[in-house]
Amino acid sequence: MSAPEYDIRSPALGETMAAKDVAAIGVASASDGSKGLVVGLVAMVLAALAMSISPSLVRLADVGPFASAFWRVFLALPILWVWMRYAEAAGADAPRASFTLATILAGLAFTGDLFFWHLAILRTTIANATFFATMAPLWVVIFGWLLLRQRVNRATLVGLLVCLSGGTALVVQSLAFNPSRAVGDTLGIITGAFFGLYFLAVGAARGRTNAARATFELSVVTSAILFVVAFFFEPRMLPQSVSGWGVLLALGLVSHAGGQGLVSVALGRLPTVFSSLVIFLETIAAALFAWVLFGENVTLIQALGGIIIVAGIWISRPRTP
């Protein structure tokens, strides 16, 4: 007697197979989601570290703030173009829409960010300039609510407040009113607002294109505008020494190609507000670079501030089912 055969179309067996399929898909989705969050978080941490050296490099550059901002973006374009071509040849799964409105707005926002930040770095302490610039999460929440009607959960708001308190501790010694730094501090606050808009725009752009193309195209927009600004407002465009070119190359390859490229990667995998919170790590690293290169000492209170920032990022971390 042959073994009984079962019709795969039977209702009972069909239901069992459907349940197993759904369970398998659920496990795969959770696994993929967790992997995406880890990749995004690692990219954002590395981006913060890559960008944290930029204030010190701007101080060391032998050209003015607008020229250094232009070269920072322009010198990164060949690397970003190669990355874009490689990513798309390898079959990047995101659509390849070119120069979307969101990408152009990201380029405009980043232009404003660099314009005011490079001025702020030269007119206040590196710690202050970086702290005010990394207040971008606050502006992401404000602009996200005002412009896009986005809301954030309670954990994210608590994490934001904790990060802000930690960042304040990092710069508490230099936050006291000082007329010689007032202009620089104000420029830093404006920088943070533009940086917040940049996060929102890149987050929107990543919905229609891949990280490499978004970073390259927004950089084209930024470098074109900054060239005009530098041409009219800088006494000279070219650095005067080999070391000067080295500083600009480091700005372009590390801070821009590395930093902004990794930000674009992260924003395709992480919530925008959380991504901007991770940038608070830039404040910690920038303070350490300023201590090593320019003697801006790190105190115990500042060290505690760094720990508080890490705690705030942990509190606001995304949760997966």
From TrEMBL:
Write out the transmembrane intervals.
37-57, 69-87, 99-120, 126-148, 155-176, 182-202, 214-233, 245-267, 274-294, 300-316
What SUPFAM superfamilies does the record tag this protein with? Multidrug resistance efflux transporter EmrE
Q: Which residues form the EamA domain?
A: 40-166, 184-315
The entry's keywords: Membrane, Transmembrane, Transmembrane helix
| InterPro entries assigned | EamA_dom (IPR000620), EmrE-like (IPR037185)
Which PANTHER family did the record assign? Answer: ACYL-MALONYL CONDENSING ENZYME-RELATED (PTHR22911)
- Respond yes or no to whether keyword Disulfide bond is given for this record: no
Q: Which Pfam families match?
A: EamA
Signal peptide annotation: none
> What protein is this chain from?
Threonine/homoserine efflux transporter RhtA
UniProt entry tagged with the keyword Cytoplasm: no
The GO cellular component terms are: membrane
